[in-house]
Each structure stands twice: as C-alpha cells, then as structure tokens.
C-alpha cells in the first residue's frame, strides 16, 4: 500500500486517482464571495446571560446549513497547533518509519492508510489518513500511538481531551436550543469511543481531475474539525457546493446522521467533500463524537411533534447503522432510506 506522503511530488495525476468525469469537482470558488457564508458563532458569550441566544444561533445554523464554525471556544491555540505540528511531522517521516502503522485493520487503535474504503467503484482519492481511537485516553490506546515524532503522544492526549470537552459543551447547547434537558446527549448517545481522522492532502498537480474525499455525511453524532488555514472543505447547501473558508482559530462543527435521526429530521446531517489544490499541503484534524455501539437510537419522543410530524425513522442499534453505512458506501440517501419509515 503506497502512501502519497511517501512519494515525490507528482508532475501529473496518476491514472488511478483520475475520477470519472461525473465525479470530478467543479471550480473551487463556485460560490460568489458575496454570496452565502457558513455561520460563525462566538462561544465566549455562552458563559453569561447570552447563553440562550448562543444556543438559538447554533440551532438556526444547524437548521439552515448543518454546519457552522465556532470561535472563542476555550481550546488553547498552542494545544491545537501542538498536535497539528506533531501530525504533520508524522506524515513527513521516512516511509520506513510509517510502515509499521500501515493497516486497514479496523480494530487497531492507530493506523495509517490512503484513499477511502467507502467507494463501491474502487475510485481512489487524493489523501492519506490516520485513524485514531483518541478518547478516553487509556494506556491501551496510548501503547498503539506512535512514539515519533517525540511530542505525538502527549500532544494528542492533550488535544483530544480538550476537543472532547468542547464537543460536550456544544451538545449541551444544542440540547438547550431544542428545548431539551441540557444533559440529553450525555451518556450512551455520545459515550462511544471517540475517533479521530487526521487527513493529509498533498499538493495535487491537477485538482480538476480528482477529489481529496468523496461526498458523504458523517455516520456519527457530531464532528469537530480543525482545518487549519488551507481551504478545501466544501459543504452541500441549496444544491451547490459551498466552500467553508478558514477562519483563524476556529473549529468547524457539522452534524452527523445520528443527530438528524434523533431530532426526527429537524437538524439535517450535511453532505460534504474535500477538494485539492496545487500549492500547499492541507491537513485536517477531524474528531468524531459517536454513540456506544449498543445504544438504541431513534427519533426522541420530544422531537416527534407538530413541527416535525410523525416519526420518520425506525429505531435501531448503532452497530446496525455502522454496517448499513459501509454497505451503502457512505451514500447519504441510500443509508437513510434503509432506516426511514416509508408510509
């Protein structure tokens, strides 16, 4: 298995990365700069009397976009940059140092691989990635994390703990904004082992021919993303792809399939993809908050009302959803069709 980060700079896109014409991206800036922008929410004021207003802003952004950015979120910049630098250092290591961690074994707590397993046609995407079980930080997890670069383990532990706390704050605000108890999403709904994807997109000689990551919705509850200062994330909005422009110090937050199902469709999961560029490495750090595998999920009784209508989804065990998501090759409509109640 060849990693893109092991190879010299390509003068052209190798054939195996060239997507069929119908899957290739349009121009990166396909939304006018004066048009729609992803909402940016200041979380600092959530600590005072404006908490209800902040919660309402989050719900409005979630309904309108399924994605938003947060600033003044409480995660220190040196914590964010410390892990981003360690992760970049891992990809920059010689191929032989990464070789012991190359694997497609899903049971591993740390592994590095390339492209994505979620395309049923075997198309390849322009990225390498780390898959990490990162929270709670246990000795079992840490033993499988690499000891090079030297700061990797300590910076990952610090970053994952801080981002997990931020995610719990966001879930409390979402619950309050929906009129639910603040602890509604605590426990089994968000108590699964937190996963992290670190996606590495090297410069691409022709971004019009390939994608960094295929269009998909996240299978989990909530995603918290550090995308750095290099653009590349696009979200589906109003039938078009909207570029999520980097905001200094911000985290991007998007809703997953489980949030859509639990809220009976009120808050929809957002389809998103990654495009490439010719000039710079792009590194994104994606933290995925998920239910426990045995958790029973369905529309919350409080969310089946006049506003949302009758229950739109059947109840299931989260482990069942994971299998269906893989079988549907991450297709938003295919996986939701399986769990939707058809009347």
From TrEMBL:
Record keyword Zinc-finger present: no
Family per similarity comment: Belongs to the iron/ascorbate-dependent oxidoreductase family.
Gene3D superfamilies according to UniProt: B-lactam Antibiotic, Isopenicillin N Synthase, Chain
Descriptive protein name: Fe2OG dioxygenase domain-containing protein
Fe2OG dioxygenase domain: residues covered: 192-291
Keywords tagged on the record: Iron, Metal-binding, Oxidoreductase
Organism: Triticum aestivum (Wheat)
PROSITE patterns per record: FE2OG_OXY
GO molecular function: metal ion binding; oxidoreductase activity
One Pfam family matching this protein: DIOX_N
Oxidoreductase as UniProt keyword: yes
UniProt signal peptide: none
Taxonomy, superkingdom: Eukaryota
InterPro entries recorded: DIOX_N (IPR026992), IPNS-like_FE2OG_OXY (IPR044861), IPNS-like_sf (IPR027443), Oxoglu/Fe-dep_dioxygenase_dom (IPR005123), Plant_2OG-oxidoreductases (IPR050295)
Swiss-Prot/TrEMBL cofactor(s): Fe cation
């Amino acid at each position: 298995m060849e990693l893109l980060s092991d190879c010299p700079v390509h003068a052209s896109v190798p054939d195996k990365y060239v997507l069929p014409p119908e899957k290739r991206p349009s121009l990166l800036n396909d939304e006018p700069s004066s048009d729609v922008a992803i909402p940016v929410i200041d979380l600092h004021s959530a600590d005072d009397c404006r908490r209800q207003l902040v919660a309402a802003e989050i719900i409005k952004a979630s309904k309108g976009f399924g994605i938003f950015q947060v600033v003044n979120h409480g995660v220190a910049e040196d914590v964010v940059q410390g892990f981003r630098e360690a992760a970049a250092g891992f990809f920059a290591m010689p191929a032989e140092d990464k070789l012991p961690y190359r694997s497609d074994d899903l049971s591993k707590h740390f592994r590095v691989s390339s492209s994505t397993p979620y395309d049923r046609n075997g198309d390849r995407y322009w990225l390498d990635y780390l898959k990490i079980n990162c929270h709670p930080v246990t000795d079992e997890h840490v033993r499988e994390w690499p000891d090079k670069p030297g700061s990797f383990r300590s910076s990952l532990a610090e970053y994952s703990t801080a981002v997990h706390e931020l995610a719990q704050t966001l879930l409390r605000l979402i619950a309050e904004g929906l009129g639910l108890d603040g602890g509604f999403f605590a426990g089994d709904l968000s108590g699964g082992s937190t996963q992290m994807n670190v996606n590495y997109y090297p410069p691409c000689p022709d971004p019009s021919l390939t994608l960094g990551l295929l269009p998909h919705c996240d299978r989990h509850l909530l995603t918290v993303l550090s995308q750095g200062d290099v653009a590349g994330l696009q979200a589906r909005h109003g039938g078009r792809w909207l570029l999520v422009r980097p905001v200094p110090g911000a985290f991007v937050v998007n809703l997953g399939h489980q949030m859509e199902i639990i809220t009976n469709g009120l808050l929809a999961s957002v389809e998103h993809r990654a495009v490439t560029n010719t000039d710079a490495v792009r590194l994104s750090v994606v933290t995925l908050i998920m239910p426990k595998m045995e958790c029973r999920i369905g529309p919350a009784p409080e969310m089946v009302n006049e506003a949302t209508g009758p229950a739109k989804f059947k109840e299931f065990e989260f482990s069942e959803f994971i299998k269906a998501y893989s079988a549907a090759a991450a297709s938003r409509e295919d996986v939701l069709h399986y769990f939707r109640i058809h009347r």
